[in-house]
Amino acid sequence: MKAACWYGSGDIRVETVPDPQILNPQDAIIKVTLTAICGSDLHIYNGFIPGMERGDILGHEFMGEVVEVGPKVQKLKKGDRVVVPFTISCGKCFFCKAGQWSLCDNTNPNAELLEKLYGSSGGALFGYSHLYGGYAGGQAEYVRVPFADVGPIVIESDLTDEQVLFLSDIFPTGYMAAENCNIKPGDTVAIWGCGPVGQFAIRSAYMLGASRVIAIDTYPDRLRMAHDMGKAETLDYASVSVLEELKDLTGGRGPDACIDAVGLEAHGGFEYAYDRAKQALMLETDRPGVLRRAIMACRKGGTVSIPGVYGGFIDKMPMGAAFAKGLTFKMGQTHMHNYLRPLLDRIESREIDPSFVISHRTTLAEASSHYAMFNSREGCTKVVMRPS
Amino acid sequence: MQVIPWRNKAPNVHPIERAVSVVTGGMLFINGIRNGGFIRMAAGAAILGRGLTGRCHMYRLLGIHTAPSDSTLPYELGVKARAAVTVGHPRHEIYEFWRQFENLPRFMRHLVSVDQTDTTHSHWVAEGPGGHTYEWDAEIINEIPDQLIGWKSLPGSQIASAGSVRFTEAPGDRGTEIRVELQYNPPAGIVGAWASRLFGREPEQEISADLKRLKQFFETGEVATTAGQSNGVTPLCVAAGRTGYNTMPSLDEVLP
Ligand SMILES: NC(=O)c1ccc[n+]([C@@H]2O[C@H](COP(=O)([O-])OP(=O)(O)OC[C@H]3O[C@@H](n4cnc5c(N)ncnc54)[C@H](O)[C@@H]3O)[C@@H](O)[C@H]2O)c1
Ligand SMILES: [Zn+2]
Ligand SMILES: [Zn+2]
Questions:
Q1: Residues B108-114: contacts with CB within 8 Å, 24+ apart?
Q2: Are A113 and A131 contacting, i.e. CB atoms less than 8 angstroms apart?
Q3: Which end of chain A is more exposed for a tag (fewer CB within 10 A), N or C?
Q4: Residue nearest (by alpha carbon) to ligand 1 atom 15
């Protein structure tokens, strides 16, 4: 089969590799019908995610048709049309039973390695480094899906692939980011990053009752999408002082909740050069410019919700401000399995059509050039690819 | 039941060496990240961990002690390792499974086979570095049903070892806590092989990984794996005699 493989920073190649096989009794094999490139894939593309090996198959946003199931798969059947969540969860451990699916104890075969770095390991992810299990990803014609009765959600309605694909990650991720804000009537939510995750966070914040959403980015098409589709007020961080504007827009209080939908590759800010230099000298792994600003902007007693990915160490955290203002921090990989059914219901009831984020439609063969294009962010918000 | 405290947690790495470890480990780690070097990254993580905890398993393994001597630790020889895991199943069930030693190779990666010769004696075969097999006979010297199994190897074994596994009920509904402690003297020649492989897996990591596999097996009915999956051709795979199939080679395979 064909698959998009990682060979180093900025080096993605579509290669012919062996077809995946059932390796465990609860596995299924999915024939991929549509897959997407995620902002998280760009962190790999730019070389910020530890534990990649040359040849690894990328991709964690995918859907398709079940073509084979293992002997212990009971619910999923050959022919089912499914969307697969990007986190792999067993459904049986303490964390899965507590609804903290992405922290699953039992799916990462390399858990001891992540344990060494982080103290303990969460669940595995598709196509997201050997630290997160080393599972081959879904930017491919076929993919092996472990715990097939636990993760995949069967789509029975006649919704198109494009309408349901983003249940695999960014819609639930934006939704959980907003849910973590504990939104009350009258609340203002500020969202840094108008990439796909930011776009769904905007929509979700309104669904959960926010009075105002203020979205921050610098790319005109992304800001326009946030404004036109998301009904957010927008700020261009390159042309205004975001902290001053937020203070002003909220009558001096600051936003009730701040969402960092950017993560470890933040741009801009007076300390950008400092963080870049420290990254280059290998003294800091992540650039936390947005996180710093979210902490400074947030109102007293507010919440900072962090769907943006961080991988290692950060510097100059304004911990004093966070402490003095009594902030709450919420973060982590999305607990996908909690959101699949409820969000599919919202799509089926036509409350939202997630395909609005798509800017580019292409085939897997073009993966390499589209990684580069999405990474430039110029005129590109989301790429979906058909395997053939 | 007697609680035996673990006495070997004190730092055995000198403070200056610890600082150097944090810096070099951090740099190797981040360099590994940037250049996609999984091995470099893992090595960096090991050195970083050594700096942050002040404990070096390699040193302990070799009986080297560079920390200031105000610590009360006795000079220790031989390998000592321990690990723990919590499994969401009743204690009796897990004890019964474990007590059938024939079950152990199902989740302990380096065990080839275990044969129980009578109720207290068993014969063990394990595969060590470089594909060598080692055999020993063990005798249960202490057993409290559902709680404890303690054993030691018999004279004439290729590996002199002693160990225990304890089963206790976890608080709430969390199941059973399993604690393994092992001590052994590696057979002559092995220390050298391990010393040259400074970044290979440590015995504690190995036991911890084994226990995780047991947990997976109990809680989910299967052991998580990617072995046998496909990926693009890599130089590392080619060097390890693989061509495009399979998951990445293990650290053991690529380090000298
Ligand atoms: N927690 C999870 O489970 C999860 C899931 C999916 C994605 N993510 C993460 O969410 C983040 C966003 O994902 P995405 O797909 O939207 O990525 P993306 O790269 O398309 O979007 C990031 C946006 O942030 C903007 N940005 C950069 N610096 C900024 C600044 N200083 N102020 C405001 N905006 C700034 C960029 O212009 C870009 O539009 C990534 O870190 C991704 O890894 C997390
Ligand atoms: Zn994603
Ligand atoms: Zn689980």
A1: B108/B210, B108/B213, B109/B206, B109/B209, B109/B210, B109/B213, B110/B206
A2: yes
A3: C
A4: A39
Interface size A-B, in CB pairs within 8 Å, comes to 157
**Which stretches does DSSP call E strand in A38-136?**
56-57, 61-69, 81-84, 87-88, 124-125
CA angle (A79 as vertex; A77, A81 as ends), nearest 5: 95
Would you write out chain A's pLDDT as a tens digit for each of its 388 residues? 999 999 999 999 999 999 999 999 999 999 999 999 999 999 999 988 888 888 999 999 999 999 999 999 999 999 999 999 999 999 999 999 999 999 999 999 989 888 888 899 999 999 999 889 999 999 999 999 999 999 999 999 999 999 999 999 999 999 999 999 999 999 999 999 999 999 999 999 999 999 999 999 999 999 999 999 999 999 999 999 999 999 999 999 999 999 999 999 888 777 788 788 777 776 777 888 899 999 999 999 999 999 999 988 888 899 999 999 999 999 999 999 999 999 999 999 999 999 999 999 999 999 999 999 999 998 999 999 999 8
Q: Residue A121, Cα to own-chain centre: how many angstroms?
A: 18
Pick the closest to residue A149 from A256, A209, A40, A75 (CA basis). A75
Q: φ, ψ for residue B82 (rounded to 5)?
A: -150, 155
CATH fold for domain B79-225: Alpha-D-Glucose-1,6-Bisphosphate; Chain A, domain 4 (3.30.530)
Q: Which of these, A332, A181, A175, lies nearest to A256 by C-alpha position?
A: A181
Helix ranges (H only) for chain B are: 15-34, 38-53, 57-62, 91-99, 190-196, 203-220, 235-239, 251-254
Q: How far is the CA of A356 from the centre of ligand 1 (A)?
A: 17
CATH architecture classification, A2-168+334-386 = Alpha-Beta Complex (3.90)
The CATH number assigned to the domain with range A171-331 reads 3.40.50.720
Handedness of CA B89, B95, B97, B98 (dihedral sign): positive
User: Per the CB < 8 Å rule, is A56 touching B232?
Assistant: yes
Task: Quote the minimal CA–CA distance from A70 to chain B in Å.
Answer: 12
| Interchain contact, A54 vs B27, CB within 8 Å | no
First-residue to last-residue Cα distance in chain A? 10
Closest Cα in chain A to B39? A51
Domain chopping of chain A, boundaries: 2-168+334-386, 171-331
Cα(B253) to ligand 2 centroid in Å equals 32
Which sequence spans correspond to the domains of chain B? 10-62, 79-225
B175 contacts B89 by C-beta, under 8 angstroms = yes
| Dist. CA A302–CA A258, nearest whole Å | 8
